[in-house]
Amino acid sequence: MKRTVALAATTCALALLTTACGGSGSHSSAPSGATASDLHLPDLHGQHLEVAAVWTGPEQKNFMKVIQRFDQLTGAKTDFVPTGDNVSTFLGTKIQGGGAPDVAFLPQPGVLAQFAKSGWLKPADASVQKQLKSNYSTGWQNQGAYKGTQYGVYFKAANKSTVWYNTKAFSTAGVSSPPATWPEFLKVAQTLSDSGTPPVSVGGADGWTLTDWFENVYLSQAGPAKYDQLTKHQIKWTDPSVGKALTTLGQLFGKPALLAGGTRGAVATEFPASVDQTFADPAKAAMVYEGDFVATNITSDTKAKIGTDAKVFPFPTVDGGQAPMVVGGDVAVALKSSKGAQALLTYLASTDAARTEVKQGGFISPNKSLDLSAYPDATEQSLAKSLTAAGDNFRFDMSDQAPAAFGGTKGQGEWKDLQDFLANPSDVAGAQSKLETDAAAAFANAG
Predict the structure, then answer these.
(1) What would the pLDDT profile of 80-93 be if each residue is shown by its tens digit?
(2) How far apart are CA 194 and CA 112, in angstroms?
């Protein structure tokens, strides 16, 4: 969605959302919270900045409120540049062609490492690091660093160990409480199926959703140490632990009656549609697994109310393992050596920026200084609390840490291999072999 430009006649009326009228640089009408002085933001009147990210639709619209607030505080004029799904390819082309945006959001730490090795990133300055040290745990700071140099700000985080469910479908099926373990999850799924509602909606047309399914099962079942080894390709995808996790997933994926639309439907369903059909009226599915950001799709695309019609439970534990806490996030990095780029990173690391975004809904911030009351409802407050309360006790999305050719590119690598597995979940060994071949090639090419 393109950035909305206010008509001249209404600019002053929208002063709280846009650059102050008259171009005076005054911040007297700014909402309570940070000011340019508090954050040591420079005067950027007359400067045009570009910020690039993958976000579209409601996510992009909500983020524009943050950009408008930054422009109000500094006098800059910042434009949003959509990257499309292949973020690394888009940005690499822009950088090599001399047209890099000032700031870009990278959805994979693996891409941050690749860009840093290529010399494409500009280190965070003292103002950025001051905000990070005040507002972020060490674990989140480290996720934005490479070989001891701080480059990025994790503005957006995702608690990706959540399952959303339709309360009416559960009630109709006589399910009184959400499942806590994988066997309970499968039992509830069968109960829902028997009641006439397909139990699980899978957005298999978007391969990244399948990597998240695998990671939660693997982290709980194999444990953090194995998870870290597989993430770094220190063990192969042909390892028995991977086969065990795929076999566990096959207990769901291999039963078409448990999937909305059956196997073909799951393979063809895109992520937004997987949410929509779960909270349609009447429901076409009872549960959908994905992160806290599902709330955005529920709010914008359905009539369901979060906390009443739509509720959430933690991803079930597997084989007696710990409850998984898999997180994702988008890290903002500077691609230009400019005062404006560092100012934007500084603002993104602030509590004011986090507050501006989270109150829109469907967004979780890793900013530990943000009061939970900033979130619009009890469900999102709970999701945010579980994320920040974990401190450094989490694991970042495995596919996001891999080279983009394996873990972050549509139609290839892990995304494609797991889509093939969803279509044929009985071939565990074949899936492992393909995953290992693609992982080995990607890690070798990444050096």
Answers:
(1) 999 998 888 999 99
(2) 47
Q: Which residues contact 286 (CB under 8 A, 6 or more apart)?
A: 165, 166, 169, 170, 173, 192, 197, 198, 199, 200, 278
User: Is 260 in a helix, a strand, or coil?
Assistant: coil
Residue with tokens 């401190």: 391
The percent of the chain in helix, strand and coil, each rounded to the nearest 5, is 50, 15, 35
What's the CATH number where 24 sits? 3.40.190.10
- Are 119 and 195 found together in one domain? no
pLDDT at residue 37, rounded to an integer: 60
Query: pLDDT digit string (tens) for 318-345?
Result: 999 999 999 989 999 999 999 999 999 9
Domain assignment of residue 433, yes or no:
yes
Sequence-ordered list of residues with C-beta below 8 angstroms from that of 66, at least 6 positions apart, any chain: 348, 353, 356, 357
What is the pTM assigned to this prediction?
A: 0.78
22 or 252, greater pLDDT: 252
Query: Which of helix, strand or coil describes residue 79?
Result: strand
Same-domain status, 257 and 342: no
Rounded (10°) CA dihedral 428, 429, 430, 433:
120
Query: Domain range for residue 113?
Result: 19-158+329-385
* Phi, psi values for residue 88, rounded to 5°: -65, -40
267 pLDDT more than 90: yes
Q: Are residues 274 and 223 in the same domain?
A: yes
